[in-house]
Amino acid sequence: MTGVHDGIDPAAKLIAFLAAGIVVATTPGWQPLNLAVFGAMTAVLLMGFKAPLGVVAKRLLAVSPVVLLSGAARAWQAGDETAGLAVAAKAGIVILLFAVLTSTTPVSSLLRAMRRMGMPNAVGSVIALMERYVHLMGEELRRMRRARASRTVNAMGLMERFHSEGQMFGALLLRSWNRSDRVYQAMLARGFTGDWPGGSRRVWGLREAGFVVGMAAGFGWARWL
Amino acid sequence: MHIADGIFPLAWCGAAHAVTYPLIYWSGRKAQPAEIVKMGLLASALFAVSLVHIPAAGTAIHVGLLGLAGIVLGVRSVAVVFSALLLQALLFQHGGLLALGVNALNMSAGALLAGLLWRVRMGNAAVRGFAAGFVGVAVPAGLVGMEFTLAGYGKGFLALAGLYSGVAVLEGVITSVTVGFLARTRPAALESAFMGEDGRDGSA
Fold it and tell me: How many CB atoms lie within 10 A of CB A63?
């Protein structure tokens, strides 16, 4: 699906969304008008970016218990329901903003952008490997659990189950340990020198600069309405 | 235990980011390429395990294995924990990007303390494994509870953190079994392979 953001450097998108998130998060207290404008602007971004609504809704739903609990606790503590509403609304808008960004920009592009922006090499490399191998490890663990289920006739008690899971996790760690040696040899053969490529630095054009300035100015304007 | 964006004051989030980055550099210093690949693969395995739900007492728990990460990865666990949290924030929105520093500090504290407890040779491997698994959950939960209290959300979150002690016991049991298995099959995995003092790869 194409959206207005197509072709914009992911680094510019990341900076623009971070700036917007910071503006929303630093808005003091319960200011319904400002929060409504933030919400409307986020909705415009959601539509403009053509974010998959199902994915965004699922992500919002997953974090909603933490947000609602925090809002309720703040309202209870302050003896003022608007204090709780402010926390829940601001958190909800910031989460929605980042949900729009991460559901419309490939994680690998965002990671490459972060790498270019100075993310430590160890972190960039570990994430790149995780992105590649986490599904593989997950599938391996599922296979091991299926094999156990097919060999276990009697239902296991709690401690038996924990013992079995612990051994299985150990076996998975060992497999990943052994696999890492093979992966490293294969990477060496392909010219790996220890540095993970972050991609070439892109020169920002008018679109990137306009997007960052526009987002920051738009949310800044809404903050000081 | 993953704090979302907009919950804590931005100044806290900024300060936590400022503390986290030097910690990450310290954690990943002198890491050899072979070691980084090992960190990536072990992190993938730990991440995959953390997505598993284990039926227990009519409900299901999911393990974080921060204690095991501390045992196996030592000081390198900070870089690995940060990487896993960043990936979770990007993929599932579990924990915010602005709050990433706070989350990383909370979780890393548990992993580092677990690694330290493991390396203090008191008691047998099963006991040390249990202690490491326990603090891997209890320390982050306690820190999160304390932070919510200090941020003005009331003491209820401290009580909620107390509920995590049950999960911490279960995680202690699992970690104890896992290190027992590793001690029997691949003791090298439990040695101080990732302490990083001299940047050596401890896979030998």
Answer: 22
